Amino acid sequence: MSEITYVPGDATAGRAIDVLVLGGAGVDTIVRVPELPLPYADSYMIDSGIRTRAGQTGDFVAVALTALGLRTHHLDFLGDDPEGDLVRALHREHGIPLTAVPQPAGTKRAVNLVGPDGRRLSLYDTSRAHPDDRFPEDTLRALAGASRHAHVSLTQPCAHALPVLRDTGVTLSTDLHDWDGENPYHEPFAYAADVVFLSAAALGDPERAMRRIAERGRAEVVVATAGARGALVLADDELTRLPAVTPPAPVVDSNGAGDAFAAAFLHAWLNRETPLRSALFGTIAGAHACTVPATETTAIGLDELRVRAADL
User: Fold this and answer.
1) DSSP per position, 103-142
2) CB neighbours of residue 13 within 10 Å
3) Exposed e or buried b per residue across 276-299, where buried means at least 16 C-beta atoms within 10 angstroms of its C-beta
4) Using one digit for the tens of pLDDT, what is the confidence trace for 89-123?
5) Which terminus, N or C, of the chain has the lesser number of Cβ atoms within 10 Å?
6) What's this model's pTM, rounded to 2 decimal places?
7) How far apart are CA 260 and CA 289, in angstroms?
8) Residue 65 to residues 97, 142, 150, 182, 211, Cα–Cα distance (Å)
9) Which residues form the Carbohydrate kinase PfkB domain (predicted)?
10) What is the set of domains in the chain, with CATH numbers?
């Protein structure tokens, strides 16, 4: 399989891409389980079915950004396998340009166990990448040079792309997900990005971790999402807590909620909204995502997002 390269026009003539999404392409196998943690048993009968669909963190962000009207491009490694075909089909369905670098190890995949309350436990197959994987630098520079912004997933080989991205002058965001505040793998992402998202789930002291990111890195805004407890926003050295938004329907799955939050925040932030206003958009989109079954890959549209924001 040869590399699929998309270079949108002349970067010097304008930015043809609003957001370049790096990494996070793959497939998930969804299994609804009776409870989490799942007690040991020889077997479980899964009446709802076990389904594999395209969509990991980068895919979800790309879909959500596109649903909000942003010109989005996705760059990642993909295998020449059925899973890679699912990812390509997802991008075609949503009209998202995709640059796929061949990955002989195969397309990234995971198994998500989803409980009745929508919580999930993800099992990631880390064999689908190698430490020496690198995005082709000419492709990376061309795409970054044509982009207003780049959102960088934690997946391999995005850490190696950070110096090149910074060299192009494009603004950056990243999502540290459930960082514990100590794992050094996350630090290059945290300190290189202009906007940093993370979950407060594994943080004993979220404010301390957020301020450390702002002090050691270049982040203008640090946002820690906390599910039903809302979100913390650190901007201009001031920490603000935003309450959670009531979901518009019953919560069925939290998978993709953080990605939806990030996409809606970036849409507002790139349109020069304040960090708090951007985070409000994020909480609305994240709450909406929790009402979407794990087997689907859909996102809130711009009109609905604006209506809900106006109501609040």
Assistant:
1) -TT---EEEEEE-TTS-EEEEE-GGG--TT----HHHHHH
2) 8
3) eebbbbbbbbbbbbbbbebbebbb
4) 999 999 999 999 999 999 999 999 989 888 889 99
5) C
6) 0.90
7) 7
8) 12, 21, 12, 30, 27
9) 61-296
10) 17-38+46-311 (3.40.1190.20)
Bridge partners, residue 195, by sequence: 173, 221
Chain centroid to Cα 47, Å, comes to 30
Q: Tell me the C-alpha distance between 104 and 91, whole Å.
A: 21
CA angle 14, 15, 17 (to 5 degrees): 155
How far is it, in rounded angstroms, from Cα 34 to Cα 21?
A: 35
Cα 273 to chain centroid distance, Å, stands at 20
- AA identity, residue 49: G
**Helix (H) or strand (E) run with residue 175 in it:** strand 171-175
User: How many CB atoms sit inside 10 A of residue 110's CB?
Assistant: 17
Burial readout 67-104 (b: 16 or more C-beta within 10 A, e: otherwise): bbebbbbbbbbbbebebbebbbebbeebebbbbbbebe
Handedness of CA 262, 267, 271, 276 (dihedral sign): negative
**Do 100 and 78 meet the contact criterion of CB atoms below 8 Å apart?**
yes
Decide if 221 contacts 200 (C-beta within 8 A): no
DSSP state of 305: H
Q: What are phi and psi of 222, to 5 degrees?
A: -125, 130
pLDDT tens sequence across 214-262: 999 999 999 999 988 899 999 999 999 999 898 888 888 777 889 999 9
